Structures are given as C-alpha cells and as structure tokens.
Amino acid sequence: MKLIDVPDRFNIPFADSAGGGFITYPIPEASQIGISDGRASLTDGFPPQNFLPVGAGGVPPFGQDTNGLLKQITEWNRWQGAGSPVPYSSAFSTAIGGYPQGALLASTTFTGFWLNAADDNTTDPDAGGTNWLPFFPYPQETLAANRTYYVSTTGSDSNDGLTSGTAWATLQHAWDFVLANINLAGYNITIDVEDGTYTSALTASGVLTGAPGPGSFQIVGNTGTPANVVLSTAGDCIRSSNNAQIMVRGMRLTSSGASCFATSRGGTLEFDTIEFNTAAVSHINASGGSLVTFNGAYSIVGASPFHYQVTNKALLAYGTVGSAIVTLTGTPAFTQFAFCSLSALIGINSGLVTYSGSATGSRYTAILGGNIYTFGGGANYFPGNSAGSTATGGLYN
Questions:
Q1: ω into residue 134 within 30 of 0, thus cis?
Q2: What is the predicted pLDDT for the residue at 136?
Q3: Closest by alpha carbon to 329, among 381, 276, 382, 285?
Q4: Cα–Cα distance between 386 and 389 in angstroms, integer?
Q5: How far apart are CA 268 and CA 307, in angstroms?
Q6: CB neighbour burial string for 86-110, b if at least 16 within 10 angstroms, e if fewer
Q7: Using an 8 Å Cβ cutoff, are 186 and 213 in contact?
Q8: DSSP notation for 276-303
C-alpha cells in the first residue's frame, strides 16, 4: 500500500443525527431473544427471526439496530482515523480478560504511552500495574537538585509521593514513575520508606535517564532499626535487571519463594544495614553479568539454602575500604554459605570484613570456573560447620 491509498475518513459517525426513534444506541450486549423479538444484540448479531419469512413467524430487521450498529463502529473508525489513543479501562479489561501483550495505551495524562509486556494483563499501568513499560514520548522533568519521594503502608500510588502525607504505596510505582518521568541530570532520587510491613516486590529494569550510578536511586528505610521496615514477598524482594542501578539501605527482607536480593542482565545493586531473614532460594542471588556490592555492616537473622549465590559471570564484592561486620543471629542453616559458579567471582577482603556468629552447612562451594577470593581469609573464613569445596575449575583463595 501507498500513502495515497488512505481511505476517506469518517468526519462524523454514521447516523450521527438520527433521532431516538430511528436508532438503537448502544447496541445491547445481551441477547434480545425472548425479550424483544427480532432485535439485534452483540451476542447474537441479527437474530434468527430476521432470517425467516414474515409468513413463517419471521420479524424484519430493525433499521434502528442497523443505524446504531454502524454508528458504534464508525465512532471508533473516526477516533482511530484521528490518531487518538485510549487509556486503561478497568471495565473493558475485565470484560476481555486483560490486555494482550503488545497493547499500547495512553497514560491518563495523555503525555505518553504504556506498552504491555504480558498477555491477559488486568493491572492498571497508571496505578503501578505490573508488566507495563513506559513508551515514548514521555516528556521528562529535569532535576535541578536532589529529590526525595515517600513510600508508606498508608500511601496510595495515585498520590504525588512528595511528602509523607502524600506517600506512594509501593516501591514498584516509585521506580516506574522515576523511570518514565524524571531526568536525574546527575542528581539523586531517595525513596524514603517509612516504618511498616510491605508485601509488594520491586523489579527495577532499565536505565534511569541522567543517573550517574547506583547511589542515584536510593531506597532508604530505617538505618537505625532496619527491622522496623519489613519487605516480605513471595518472589524476589528486590531485583535489579537490564542494567538498572539501585542502592538499598535499612530494611529487613524475607522471601517465601525466591531471593531477598536478585540481580541479572547487567543489573547493579548496592546495599548496607540490611537484615536478611529467611529466603527460599538465597539471600543474595547474582547472575548474568550483574554486580552486587555491600558497603557496610549488615546482619543475617534467618536461614536460606545460600547466603551468596553468584553465577554466570556475575560479581559480588565488598565495595569500600573501611571495615564492616556481618552479624549472624542464632545459628541460621545454609546448604552453602557462599556458592560461586560459571566464571563468576565473589571478592571479599578478609582484612576488612568480619563474620560474627555461627551457622550450619558448608562454608563455600566453587565450581565450573567460579572464583571465591577472600584475600587470604583461609578455609574457615565464611560461617558454617562443614568444610567448603571446589570442583571443575572452581577456585578458593
């Protein structure tokens, strides 16, 4: 087709001025059989009576139905011909079982779009719904100074997030909003998470405009008493992927089905003053060329199969030159405290980082080219009550 093949547009809908006695609008969705003989519906179309001779009990089609049907169709033709998008509709989403992957919706401000990344998506993208990606041409505000947004258990993702009284409800909305609407221009965004228990996870995916590093998007709970800010989720509590960069401080994390922290596909995550409670898979899971660094003291208060699980060319390291203590409370159980494989690296300077307390399980496992480097910490450096091991090109130093 060529540009000149564009058909004539509907400047007005069909039967636009038809009076009430000459149009059925909108066409009813439910069948009209047994209610109003011969009337059309979205369920039946024109019913069977319209196809029978009058002498055999048939009913002629109603002109009002034809006018109404064509008006309803051509209103949408006119809307689409004008290049007009539509925003999310809860009623429509429910009726169709959710939006299909690839659907493109306007934001409620009509300043940009949302691209759907999953089939059967019933969530609202303007209220922090999942699997919606911001899509050009979102105009972004350029920061001229550092800024703080607030998240609270009493908040709402429809708020502006700028004060504790107008806080958002979820970390996911905080990330999505900043990603879509803010050019950091080298400044920092702090997400102030107020005391309370949260059950909504965060997946940070993509690169924030104008963000110079992980510290430019900081999630800060209660650094004095991390246990006052609890993030307890079924999946990963916080994941950084697709080159996202985030910093997390002052929280207690529990995952009943996955990991507390997870990074993948080049994501970066820095943390300190974290309390790791129980996790079904690992406390820290880094893979796919991603990076996790801790920059100060933290604690372990619950068990997990792995504390450090680093694979597939990922890196976990201690990131500062000062000393830090990792405190274990009770005797948490691990399968392996530190696990490293597939050309990944765990690099922790035993001269700077001390583990205080005890644990059960193997101290470490390095396999398939995984390298655990402790700067001379020795075989008993990591917590555990059984020896570590290396195999298939794995190294421990």
A1: no
A2: 59
A3: 276
A4: 10
A5: 18
A6: eebeeeebeeeebbeeebebbbeee
A7: no
A8: EEEESSEEEEE-TT-EEEE-S-EEE-S-
One-letter identity of residue 356? S
Give the pLDDT score at 127.
Answer: 83
Contact (Cβ atoms closer than 8 angstroms) between residue 238 and residue 246: yes
Q: Which one-letter amino acid corresponds to residue 288?
A: G
Q: Which residue is listed with tokens 């020896």? A: 387
Token look-up 């101290």 returns 363
DSSP assignment letter at 200: -
The residue ranges of every structural domain in the chain are 3-81, 85-127, 128-396
Chain centroid to Cα 289, Å, comes to 20
Distance CA 262, CA 185 (A): 27
CB 317 within 8 A of CB 371: no
* Regions of the chain where pLDDT drops below 50: none
Report the candidate in 111, 127, 184 with the shortest Cα–Cα distance to residue 159: 127
- Residue-level pLDDT at 383: 98
Q: CA 218, CA 87: separation in Å to the nearest integer? A: 31
Predicted pLDDT at 238: 98
Q: Residue 337 and residue 364: Cα distance in Å, rounded?
A: 6
- pLDDT given for residue 209 in this prediction: 87
CB burial of 361-376 (b: ≥16 within 10 Å; e: otherwise) equals bbbbbbbebbbbbbee
User: What's the 3-state SS for 39-106?
Assistant: CCECCCECCHHHHCCHHHCCCCCCHHHHHHHHHHHHHHHHHHHCCCCCECCHHHHHHHCCECCCCEEE
How far is Cα 99 from Cα 89, in angstroms, rounded to an integer?
10
Identify any residues that bridge with 238 across adjacent strands, giving them in sequence order: 202, 261
Q: DSSP letters of 305-361?
A: SEEEEE-TT-EEEE--SS-EEEEEPS--EEEEEEEEETT-EEE--TTTEEEES--EE
Q: Which residues contact 166 (CB under 8 A, 6 or more apart)?
A: 150, 155, 159, 160
Locate 349 and state its tokens: 């300077």
